[in-house]
């Protein structure tokens, strides 16, 4: 396939970015989207130009690094797929593809398509831990957990922190991400010790980072590559209200 790429180029955080048009030829439909970008960068290097910066790591749909806005959609046109798992067979010969970074005040652009998502790390650091007793490892079946609850906690834990929910939301809200992290522990007995302080601290950090408010449009869940459910936002709201009702923190 021969494709026209309209790529966001921005040399650093302070610079004014712009869309730059490139052409790539002989792209195999079996290539992943990132492999196609690798081809583009090889062409740019051969031409003595600066390659396009983009985030990637595992390229197996696990790490959540490949955060790209493709033709106006988080991770591209295929539902439930990360950018690294998106194959070029989803496009046609002669297509024009617009590629941009995540758009959110809390995700500043480092360079080109690479954004700083450390705000997510700080939210997790604000409350994403559980108290554990040191010493011998407890038996894995010591605390019985109903399968339904275990399954729901596991589904929340599948969040890879890619930020697609933020990019898809008109308010750049991080509620789906935060709710998945809160639900993961709130559903399990191991998370009970810090249950109230965890949700308070994580929501406070989310607001501090500058993410927008949730208006329950559902675009976050629709674009989530691992299918995190809106149910988790309901769990987060319930946990937060319960924590605030008995909290000593009046802020």
From TrEMBL:
Species whose genome carries this gene: Hymenobacter negativus
Sequence similarity: Belongs to the succinate dehydrogenase/fumarate reductase iron-sulfur protein family.
Residue stretches spanning the membrane: none
PANTHER family named among the record's database cross-references: SUCCINATE DEHYDROGENASE (PTHR11921:SF41), SUCCINATE DEHYDROGENASE IRON-SULFUR PROTEIN (PTHR11921)
Domain of life: Bacteria
Cofactor: [2Fe-2S] cluster; [3Fe-4S] cluster
One Pfam assignment: Fer4_8
Gene3D superfamilies tied to this protein: 3.10.20.30, Alpha-helical ferredoxin (1.10.1060.10)
InterPro entries, A to Z: 2Fe-2S_ferredoxin-like_sf, 2Fe2S_fd_BS, 4Fe4S_Fe-S-bd, Beta-grasp_dom_sf, Helical_ferredxn, SDH/FRD_Iron-Sulfur, Succ_DH/fum_Rdtase_N
Domain (4Fe-4S ferredoxin-type): residue spans on this chain: 150-180
Name of the protein: Succinate dehydrogenase/fumarate reductase iron-sulfur subunit
